[in-house]
Amino acid sequence: MVSSIEKIASTLPGTPQRRTGAFVLIDSLVRQGVKHIFGYPGGAILPIYDELYRAESKGYLQHFLVRHEQAAAHAADGYARATGKVGICFGTSGPGATNLVTGIATAHMDSIPMIIVTGQVGRASIGSDAFQETDIFGITLPLVKHSYVVRHAKDMARIVAEAFHIASTGRPGPVLIDVPKDVGLEECDYIPVDLGQVRLPGYRPTVKGNPRQINAALRLIEQAQRPLLYVGGGAISANAHAQVKELAERFQIPVATTLMGIGVFDEHHPLSVAMLGMHGTAYANFAVSECDLLVAVGARFDDRVTGKLEEFASHAKVIHIDIDPAEVGKNRAPTVPIVGDVCWVLEQLLKRAKELGLPADVGITRSWLARIDRWRVEYPLVVPHYDHSISPQEVIAEVASQAPNAYYTTDVGQHQMWAAQFLKNGPRRWISSGGLGTMGYGMPAAMGAKVAVPDEEVICITGDASFQMNLQELASLSQYRINVKTIIINNGWQGMVRQWQQTFFGERYSSSNMQVGMPNFELLAQAFGVKGMTVREHSQLSKTIIQMLAYDGPVLIDVHVTKNENCYPMVAPGKSNAQMLGLPKRKAIGEPITSICCTNCGEKNPTTNHFCSACGTKL
Ligand SMILES: Cc1ncc(C[n+]2csc(CCOP(=O)(O)OP(=O)(O)O)c2C)c(N)n1
Ligand SMILES: [Mg+2]
Known about the structure:
This protein is an alpha/beta fold.
């Protein structure tokens, strides 16, 4: 692919050229470094697709035709999550635009940088109920970070530059650009606009946190006896994983992440307590219930994390670090609020600790870590093994062991939560719809991620119900030979709905069984030209995953699993995080524990402990 921007506009050395709005749009995207667009054409966006055709045929960028606009938005979103770059999707007016809405809302809830370009009816027809007219600007107002209707072609270059700036700075988010058909065709004097020229006096995200607040935060960390880091997706957007690690290690603070924060901190690290919240680990939820200092980093105290808000970290002072002032104090009033870029603030915090020359053991609380270690041993996450059926957790544990460094996307339901519990991957390698919980997200997001990081393994963990919401994208995978591996955890149910109906609705399984009408997924894949495989027995699981990973092309595996497995632990809605359902006891799973003697006091500790549970000495 031609990467040079000059070629597309070699005739533009500072003097305006007469160009159409559509040309300006495509040229501006190329100038911003866009290489890939996901979309679907239609009448109102045809002028733009015509320019796209030219740009594509010159090799400046590549367009991926999806089979449903929702998938274009999810693919752009997966592209953005995998890389941090702005994802781009296109759709036409009317139904094309409304089909994008779920994808826009998904990106908005998870703060994903994205630009959505929609065609619109001609300016003279706007407001007349013209064919395929919808007010997509109005429809998406609560779902975007910002939006534009381009009134004149001469505004296009400025708007595109602004859209990139807004989507990718501060708290990232989706930006909509609605382009009336005749604006695409209208000529204007075009001079390219780059990011440095963007002037938005009303939009200046605070990057640098207040130094006094940073000092105050440091004092709280020094004094805390039971500190806990609570890290969310904001730390991923800010690429702050190195800073999170340094802070955790410097003060020996255990780290819990939200669903969106998965990957920011290595879950194999002794300080990791993994995910907290509704289906988080018991040790993360106990830790948050007992901590005396909660350091919230790029997290928003979402209800799926807090459970009963009044009882969430109720003994704790709170330091809340976030780029978005609207999040600070929204659900929980912090003791020390710090508005700023998470990466910048954590760096300053560490720098300040060095400047103050704090002794190395300041803030290190061994008995707290030992206590967490005990919870870790007593209440582990469990992978069940049954003689006659494969458990869903086994599938995820198996693929995680075979492809530990892959980029994983998920759909929504039990499989998503098990994937969150058992995959332990790195930053940006966990791609899942957190805030909106959008079924149908997984495969198109994987498609976008694979286009973004073609040399990496990209695996979608989906459910039998979720997969059926966007299965048409098998055609896009097939057309472009996008090497995505999809694993259906097939329990024949909308498993998460079944679990709630069993637990909270008297086992009345209203419309949640998927068995009747279930397609043969292997044949379905083959019908699209995608390799399909089915697994029904333990003996086939490992080797089928080996085959899948070895195959050079898209693959779909349908794994039939235990039908009635429930996802635990579970914090029931409205309950405190310390009250979890389905807590496994170590004895129940018969895990053998070999012990290690403390050199200081002789106490016998489980080998999984990092500190002595009696005296806190490092083991
Ligand atoms: C678009 C959409 N519709 C409905 C829901 C509500 N919902 C959440 S999980 C779920 C069931 C998912 O079933 P499946 O994909 O098979 O996953 P499982 O829970 O069985 O692992 C449903 C219906 C949703 N999250 N998204
Ligand atoms: Mg299911």
